[in-house]
Specification:
Radius of gyration: 45 Å
Number of helices: 17
Strand content: under 5%
Largest sheet: none
Number of strands: 0
Length: 357
């Protein structure tokens, strides 16, 4: 009996301490985080001599699942924050796949995407698609974009308008390949500048529509010429050298600089190996072909066409440059000198005909 009383007293002394410690561990009233059964399990354990702090926190199923809900919510927020990046990655993957399907190599695709870092990959794909619709192969498209990155700044509407215009000029499929390689700015030039060049070729030089197309295909650099300079180059070929339109197109005459043309033509003229044809197209000496004058290296020109030494030609070029400087100081333009030369030749021809009569 005495032993039972001592157990009852020990249990009573433990109850206040146990309730106080449980109050500190239990959340605020109204949150309903614990149950009666869990408290009874704690009290029973404590009354039997166990340590309350070593017990796991007992709570309802709702309280146990709450951290998991908070984790899922955080993951949703992070996924929403990462969605633009993921969307950009998917778009980049789509563009890369499309370029590979077009025939571009992995190295080409990587370099194309690095031309304008941060640019929209879809715009790159749209621009390249327009080039491919013109009949171009991946290699010339890649070379053009590497050479002129400003092409990627064009809008699709600008690309389509310029593509339609080039088709009207006869530049499509294989013909556009050379133009794009030599003069990729044909897509970024002002429409007015291209129109001026075409107008000079048609109205001033009297080339046919087919000949204009052939010139733009064979000599794309004419698109970079000033209209008046291009007109003077034609006049020099037509009046001074006696070359007709068909030969100008066939020899790709307009792609050469005026400096090179004058140096070689005048040098042959002063050596007596070239003569301006008369109105009937006749000369007293057989003129060499244009391809033997312009389309060969300087060494071959001197050895086969001029049959002269390098030293003599170098001296001549210096004298010719000095003459042109003196003529420019006199105030006469190249056009005026060409027209004066033409008038003098006509007068000489008329005088010869009168003497023969």
């Amino acid at each position: 009996m005495a032993a039972f009383c001592r157990q009852v007293l020990d249990c009573c002394r433990l109850f206040p301490l146990t309730w106080a410690r449980m109050a500190r561990e239990t959340p605020c009233l109204g949150e309903r985080k614990t149950t009666t059964a869990s408290l009874l399990r704690k009290l029973t354990t404590a009354s039997s001599g166990g340590d309350l702090e070593e017990l796991p926190c007992a709570g309802s199923n709702k309280y146990v699942k709450e951290p998991e809900r908070r984790t899922n919510l955080a993951q949703c927020v992070l996924e929403k924050q990462r969605s633009p990046v993921d969307q950009g990655s998917l778009e980049l993957e789509k563009v890369t796949s499309s370029l590979l399907d077009m025939g571009f190599s992995d190295a080409h695709v990587n370099e194309l995407l690095s031309i304008r870092p941060g640019a929209n990959p879809q715009q790159l794909l749209d621009i390249i698609s327009e080039f491919m619709l013109l009949g171009l192969n991946p290699e010339p498209v890649y070379a053009a974009l590497k050479k002129s990155p400003q092409l990627l700044k064009l809008s699709i509407m600008q690309m389509k308008k310029r593509s339609i215009y080039l088709r009207k000029l006869g530049l499509e499929e294989g013909k556009l390949k050379r133009v794009l390689h030599c003069c990729p700015e044909v897509f970024t030039m002002h429409q007015r500048d291209i129109d001026d060049i075409v107008q000079v070729l048609k109205e001033k030089c009297l080339f046919t529509v087919q000949q204009v197309t052939s010139i733009l295909h064979r000599c794309p650099f004419v698109l970079r010429e000033e209209p008046r300079a291009l007109e003077y180059k034609f006049q020099y070929a037509y009046f001074r050298m006696g070359v007709k339109q068909q030969d100008i197109v066939r020899s790709e005459f307009l792609q050469y600089s005026m400096t090179k043309i004058k140096q070689r033509h005048v040098y042959l003229e002063r050596l007596g190996r070239y003569q301006t044809p008369d109105k009937k197209g006749q000369t007293q000496v057989p003129n060499p072909l244009l391809k033997d004058i312009l389309r060969v290296s300087e060494a071959e020109f001197l050895a086969r066409t001029a049959r002269s030494s390098v030293e003599e030609f170098e001296v001549f070029k210096k004298l010719l440059a000095r003459e042109e400087d003196e003529e420019s100081e006199s105030g006469l333009s190249d056009d005026e000198r060409a027209r004066l030369g033409e008038d003098q030749e006509d007068e000489e021809i008329e005088e010869d005909e009168e003497e023969q009569l």
